[in-house]
From TrEMBL:
This is Vps41 beta-propeller domain-containing protein. GO terms for biological process: cellular response to starvation; endosomal vesicle fusion; macroautophagy; protein targeting to vacuole. It holds the Pfam family Beta-prop_Vps41. GO terms for cellular component: HOPS complex; late endosome. It comes from the Eukaryota. Residues 41-107 form the Vps41 beta-propeller domain. It comes from Mycena metata. InterPro entries: Beta-prop_Vps41, Vps41/Vps8.
Amino acid sequence: MHAPDANGATEIQPPITVAANLGRVEEDEEDEEDDDEEPFLKYERIGGILPELLKKDSASALCVSRSLLALGTHGGVIHMLPCRQSNTVHMASITDVAMNETGEYVAV
């Protein structure tokens, strides 16, 4: 993903990943040095249409319900996934997204 910095230069950002905490807690700092231990997070890269959507614009807000994911971007676009519906609702960066439990109503 590409995002302009304060000087207008474009930097490459790593792809978004989904992570889940496995609930492990380190008891000793010495254990951190052991390379054979299992990682604290288990993750999987998000596939489908999302990487393609984020090639031209970077994500700025995210909200998830049981039936869909609402992703707001700095370009003012809200993507409703998995129904793959996107609407340009602002000319400015979307900084927060919220929805009701059913995903019927979305606020940006």
